[in-house]
Fold these 2 entries.
Entry 1:
Amino acid sequence: MRLDYLTIFPDYLAPLQLSLPGKAVASGLLDVHVHDLRRWTHDRHRTVDDTPYGGGAGMVLKPEPFGEALDELLGDGAEGVTVVVTTPSGEPFTQELARELATRDRLVFACGRYEGIDQRVLDHARTTAEVREVSIGDYVLNGGEVAALAITEAVVRLLPGFMGNAQSLVEESHEGGLLEHPVYTKPASWRGHEVPPVLLSGDHGAIARWRRDQAVRRTVERRPDLLPASAVTGDWTIERAVRADAAEILTLQLACWVREAIANDDLSIPPLHEDLETVTASLADWDTSVVRVGGRLVGSVRGRLDGDVWDIGRLMVAPDLRGRGLGRLLLEHVQAAAPAGAATYRLFTGKDSADNLRMYKKAGFRVREVLDGRSGPAVLTKRISGR
Ligand code: 97T
């Protein structure tokens, strides 16, 4: 595979000559070329950037140097070549994309700096080669060089013949799967910390179960976004509540609003003081939905019309299933249930319920007022689009 890099800081790419890529170069597997973008400038100051049209801060990399560089590197036949433009606004770099790039004959990395590269460079390159704008994560770098290095390492280790990549099949479990379980080696006791005894038991079934459990726990804790929707809720259903649901709704309601009461330092909130009769009666006054997982009631929400306002309330999710999008799902569901006469959604939440407020704001709700002076709940509203 041939790799080209266009950069105004060629020294930044020195690591390519070292260690693993370096060995792959020595073995003839890789052909690496780092180019100083200024080679394709013609003025005395070797200018590569200019101010943005339309104004604004920062500088934009001029089209001419990149254009001439790509003309030279791509020639007219760019079959099998992918131009990789590293940019914070690119598609996310993943193991899947690494595998795709590893199938190409050549990669040409265009490392951006400043506010980016004149868009026409990419538009023009697309007329002859495949162009991928790629981001390595949601954070800001000074330039694309480090991103290009990260992409290079992930791609090169997948190339057939790259040292020790026979195990790569195993490692690809990362994509879409669970995070890895923790690992330990000798000694069994170190500075007062013990290796979990199950790993010393010789019981391979127990070890496999423990590792799987650890992997799931880590994933739930650190990367709930990796969990498939089915893992969020197993086999879930969302249905209109019936009278027989009242007791379970009350139980979940008490569990959820104790948390609310603590977060807002207020034990007087109504959901904590209702009895079964009140909840049962409310099912007649409100359009209430419940989510069940494997038969268990784990979430609920309700809505009802007040003039042209669709009041949303009692959005609750079982404590062990928080952070997996179930609340958002219920909120979507109850909004979709608003009848034709509704023009605005309205809901209440504790003014100090940070997680709730964040979710509602993300869904487009805005705080209108805080009732009862400082202490009361916040009222949030959102216009129903097109009404
Ligand atoms: O932040 C950047 C600045 C320039 C070029 C690339 C990046 C970047 O790429 N992935 C994340 C950030």
Entry 2:
Amino acid sequence: MSQVQRMSRLMVKTLRDDPADAETLSHKLLVRAGYVRRTSAGIWSWLPLGKKVLDNISRVVREEMDAIGAQEVLLPALLPREPYEASGRWEEYGDLLFRLKDRKGADYLLGPTHEEIFTQVVKDQCTSYKDLPVMLYQIQTKYRDEARPRSGVLRGREFQMKDSYSFDTTDEGLVESYALHRAAYQKIFARLGLDFRIVSAVSGAMGGSASEEFLAPAAAGEDTFVDCPACDYAANTEAVTFAATVPAAVEPGPVEELDTPDTPTIETLAAHLGVPASATLKNLLVKIDGEITAVGVPGDREVDLGKLGEHLAPAVVELVTAEDFEDRPELVRGYVGPQGLKIRYIADPRIALGTAWITGANKPGTHARNVVCGRDFEVDDYLDVVVVEEGDPCPACGTGLKLDRAIEIGHIFQLGRKYADTFQLDVLGQQGKPVRVTMGSYGIGVSRAVAALAEQSADEQGLCWPREIAPADVHVVAAGKALQTELALDVSEQLSAAGLRVLVDERPGVSPGVKFTDAELIGVPKILVAGRRSAEGVVELKDRRTGEREELTVAEAISRLT
Ligand code: ATP
Ligand code: MG
Ligand code: MG
Ligand code: MG
């Protein structure tokens, strides 16, 4: 079977201009090069070139997951409510969850992640310690009704994820399964040609303990992380600033109206909250001199309301409203107070989410629930708070830290027994007694990886894929008339016979200039041009990344490429 793909028959329509709504490089280029098309907000169609890249990434992921002994399965994307009700996530996910009803009125959801369903499958299939450990994975479409799906496939509302789950009878077993995944992820991202860091992470809505993220540094990333220029220390700022998570029980309360003028004083705030003006407050969101501010944070930086009053004497304090969050999807709350009280942190996304919902009333004097410690949640829900800023000393070596943006491409968790407890997942132990299973969960954003790779490897001319991921190994261009076309097709057949994946641009009536521009945009790593020296059997081989060109005989070019 010929591997030669002719451009004249390929469904690809390249665009010269960036799509109007595109903000990130990968979004612009993947659309312009004809890899994806937007179907609806955050919902993308993968066209032939894009599907090839997506499949190449999936292949690498599969190979490395299989190599650690994980078994591939495919669980449904359309899921019943009950297991998610049991775990609490039917509610906890809030607006992120796509919920729907069947014809009989029963509740369903489109799976955002599958811990519940995998736990049930293993409960059904594994009954003895002899059946464990087991690692299962799938590459499945996930659904999350993201608030701002605006960076193309980087943040879809429908997207492809590889998710896997490990099931062990012992804590040591879980640590080992986690280590296997961690190593597999390192191999996967290295093979994909991604520059990445492994950072400790908050476990967020997943619950559980140890958790690390794989971050691909890129300007378009929505994560901020600190990176030590001198040693290998790196951490997600969320993890550095909040070393613990808020319990699942935290849910948004109703909107409350403050019976105060638009600019409340510390006294009116305190009265409204039902605390003395000398109280210690945690995580009340207000605006101070126009900046969104968290009054009080847990740990030793908690703020005495009375003292805050003194600090803020000349400042204008206002309550936050929905407008304050409109352009702040990441809900960064910052506070720089006078007199050395300097706090900068990124809130736990869940608190911020609650806050955003509740401030949705968008009136002055609206107070956000779930932001006041003691009333909305307990201080013990936080273990530690460290504040981090650019230039702060690295905890490992003391060098000044750098703050950078990155794309979260993977995330691994030691879940522990959270889901096993929910579903009473036990197996018969060696001693004949039931043993509660301990779990890990591990995700890779397969469709996001396409965009992350594009972000990291593209240049002004267009996309520029590493060979293993590219839609073809070589892009042959017939730059001329019949003679060049004949040579291009002939070389293409030879390359294909040698096992290469070949894309050949033999489109009649298309100028060499347009073909070159398209080749650069599409980003196949090697470009072979049959041009003005075709009569002598001389072609030009160009490296897409370096731009280096060489004139070679056909035979030389073929041996160079194979
Ligand atoms: P983010 O912080 O970017 O919202 P997440 O932490 O919510 O991601 P996880 O629940 O950890 O995501 O899911 C595992 C992986 O799935 C992520 O590491 C990421 O690569 C990918 N992913 C998550 N959400 C999306 C999305 N909306 N579109 C594409 N990929 C996604
Ligand atoms: Mg998310
Ligand atoms: Mg995340
Ligand atoms: Mg994550």
